[in-house]
Amino acid sequence: MISPLNTARFPVPREWGVEPCVDAVPGARRLVVEIARAWQVPFSDGALRDVELCAGEVIANAVEHTGVRCRVLVRWTGERLRVEVADVSRLPPDPSGTHDPITGGRGLLLVEALAQAWGWLPTARGKLVWFECAADRPAGEAV
After folding, report:
1. What's the angle, vertex CA 85, arms to CA 80 and CA 90, rounded to 5?
2. Model confidence over 64-95: pLDDT tens digits?
3. Could you give phi then psi for residue 99, rounded to 5 degrees?
Protein backbone atom coordinates (compact mmCIF):
# COMPACT_ATOMS: atom_id res chain seq x y z
CA MET A 1 0.00 0.00 0.00
CA ILE A 2 1.25 3.48 -0.87
CA SER A 3 1.52 5.83 2.06
CA PRO A 4 -0.39 9.12 1.64
CA LEU A 5 2.76 10.91 2.80
CA ASN A 6 4.64 9.62 -0.24
CA THR A 7 1.98 10.60 -2.76
CA ALA A 8 2.38 13.90 -4.56
CA ARG A 9 -0.82 15.89 -4.76
CA PHE A 10 -1.42 18.15 -7.69
CA PRO A 11 -4.53 20.11 -8.60
CA VAL A 12 -6.94 18.52 -11.05
CA PRO A 13 -6.24 19.94 -14.54
CA ARG A 14 -8.74 22.56 -15.69
CA GLU A 15 -10.22 22.45 -19.17
CA TRP A 16 -12.71 24.70 -20.97
CA GLY A 17 -13.75 25.85 -24.42
CA VAL A 18 -13.01 29.24 -25.89
CA GLU A 19 -15.50 30.73 -28.32
CA PRO A 20 -14.25 31.51 -31.82
CA CYS A 21 -14.02 35.27 -31.47
CA VAL A 22 -11.08 37.51 -30.70
CA ASP A 23 -13.05 39.09 -27.84
CA ALA A 24 -12.92 35.75 -25.97
CA VAL A 25 -9.09 35.66 -25.85
CA PRO A 26 -8.46 38.20 -23.04
CA GLY A 27 -10.81 36.38 -20.66
CA ALA A 28 -9.27 33.01 -21.50
CA ARG A 29 -5.71 34.20 -20.89
CA ARG A 30 -6.75 35.85 -17.60
CA LEU A 31 -8.40 32.58 -16.55
CA VAL A 32 -5.08 30.76 -17.05
CA VAL A 33 -3.46 33.22 -14.62
CA GLU A 34 -6.36 32.96 -12.15
CA ILE A 35 -5.98 29.17 -12.17
CA ALA A 36 -2.23 29.44 -11.48
CA ARG A 37 -2.93 31.83 -8.60
CA ALA A 38 -5.69 29.63 -7.17
CA TRP A 39 -3.32 26.66 -7.26
CA GLN A 40 -0.66 28.82 -5.57
CA VAL A 41 1.85 28.06 -8.29
CA PRO A 42 5.08 29.73 -7.11
CA PHE A 43 5.36 32.34 -9.87
CA SER A 44 6.54 35.92 -9.50
CA ASP A 45 4.36 38.66 -10.96
CA GLY A 46 6.71 38.81 -13.95
CA ALA A 47 6.44 35.07 -14.54
CA LEU A 48 2.63 35.31 -14.38
CA ARG A 49 2.75 38.07 -17.00
CA ASP A 50 4.82 35.75 -19.22
CA VAL A 51 2.28 32.94 -18.73
CA GLU A 52 -0.57 35.31 -19.58
CA LEU A 53 1.21 36.58 -22.69
CA CYS A 54 2.03 33.07 -23.92
CA ALA A 55 -1.51 31.87 -23.25
CA GLY A 56 -2.95 34.82 -25.11
CA GLU A 57 -0.77 34.18 -28.15
CA VAL A 58 -1.51 30.45 -28.39
CA ILE A 59 -5.25 30.89 -27.78
CA ALA A 60 -5.46 33.81 -30.24
CA ASN A 61 -3.74 31.72 -32.92
CA ALA A 62 -6.27 28.93 -32.50
CA VAL A 63 -9.22 31.34 -32.64
CA GLU A 64 -7.92 33.43 -35.53
CA HIS A 65 -6.73 30.59 -37.75
CA THR A 66 -9.67 28.23 -37.33
CA GLY A 67 -12.74 30.35 -36.68
CA VAL A 68 -14.12 27.61 -34.44
CA ARG A 69 -14.15 26.88 -30.72
CA CYS A 70 -10.84 25.66 -29.26
CA ARG A 71 -10.14 23.77 -26.02
CA VAL A 72 -7.72 24.99 -23.35
CA LEU A 73 -6.25 22.70 -20.69
CA VAL A 74 -4.10 23.91 -17.80
CA ARG A 75 -2.15 21.53 -15.58
CA TRP A 76 0.48 21.90 -12.84
CA THR A 77 3.25 19.30 -12.63
CA GLY A 78 4.85 20.55 -9.43
CA GLU A 79 7.63 22.17 -11.48
CA ARG A 80 5.93 23.62 -14.53
CA LEU A 81 2.59 25.05 -15.54
CA ARG A 82 1.53 23.48 -18.84
CA VAL A 83 -1.05 25.11 -21.08
CA GLU A 84 -2.45 23.14 -24.02
CA VAL A 85 -4.68 24.54 -26.76
CA ALA A 86 -6.43 22.12 -29.10
CA ASP A 87 -7.89 23.31 -32.39
CA VAL A 88 -9.23 21.77 -35.60
CA SER A 89 -6.49 22.96 -37.96
CA ARG A 90 -4.10 20.33 -39.24
CA LEU A 91 -1.59 22.99 -40.30
CA PRO A 92 1.50 23.09 -38.10
CA PRO A 93 2.18 26.30 -36.21
CA ASP A 94 4.73 28.56 -37.92
CA PRO A 95 7.03 30.28 -35.41
CA SER A 96 9.01 32.01 -38.18
CA GLY A 97 6.65 34.97 -38.12
CA THR A 98 6.48 35.08 -41.92
CA HIS A 99 2.69 35.42 -42.17
CA ASP A 100 2.38 39.20 -41.97
CA PRO A 101 4.99 40.95 -39.84
CA ILE A 102 2.96 44.18 -39.87
CA THR A 103 -0.28 42.80 -38.42
CA GLY A 104 1.12 39.91 -36.43
CA GLY A 105 2.66 36.53 -36.97
CA ARG A 106 5.33 36.87 -34.30
CA GLY A 107 3.41 35.39 -31.38
CA LEU A 108 5.07 32.00 -31.41
CA LEU A 109 8.49 33.65 -31.42
CA LEU A 110 7.38 35.35 -28.23
CA VAL A 111 6.20 32.04 -26.77
CA GLU A 112 9.52 30.48 -27.75
CA ALA A 113 11.39 33.27 -25.96
CA LEU A 114 9.29 33.35 -22.75
CA ALA A 115 8.36 29.70 -22.13
CA GLN A 116 10.79 27.03 -20.97
CA ALA A 117 9.38 24.70 -23.62
CA TRP A 118 6.71 24.68 -26.30
CA GLY A 119 5.63 22.44 -29.11
CA TRP A 120 2.75 20.92 -30.98
CA LEU A 121 1.47 17.55 -32.04
CA PRO A 122 -1.15 16.38 -34.50
CA THR A 123 -4.37 14.96 -33.12
CA ALA A 124 -7.23 13.01 -34.66
CA ARG A 125 -9.21 16.26 -35.01
CA GLY A 126 -6.47 18.81 -35.70
CA LYS A 127 -3.55 19.74 -33.49
CA LEU A 128 -2.52 20.53 -29.94
CA VAL A 129 -0.16 23.44 -29.25
CA TRP A 130 1.37 23.58 -25.79
CA PHE A 131 3.84 25.55 -23.71
CA GLU A 132 5.33 25.16 -20.25
CA CYS A 133 6.54 27.80 -17.82
CA ALA A 134 8.71 26.81 -14.89
CA ALA A 135 8.03 27.96 -11.36
CA ASP A 136 10.33 30.62 -9.91
CA ARG A 137 11.04 28.34 -6.96
CA PRO A 138 10.19 24.74 -6.04
CA ALA A 139 6.60 24.11 -4.98
CA GLY A 140 6.21 24.33 -1.22
CA GLU A 141 9.25 26.57 -0.74
CA ALA A 142 8.56 29.59 1.44
CA VAL A 143 8.15 32.93 -0.28
Report:
1. 130
2. 999 999 999 999 999 999 999 999 999 999 87
3. -60, -70
Residue 118: its H or E element:
strand 117-123
pTM summary value = 0.86
Element holding 35 (H helix, E strand): helix 25-38
Check if the beta carbon of residue 43 is closer than 8 Å to that of residue 51.
Answer: yes
User: Is residue 96 predicted with pLDDT exceeding 80?
Assistant: no
Query: What is the length of the chain?
Result: 143
* Angstrom distances, CA of residue 1 to CA of 5, 6, 7, 8, 9: 12, 11, 11, 15, 17
Task: Measure the CA–CA gap between 93 and 120, rounded to whole angstroms.
Answer: 8
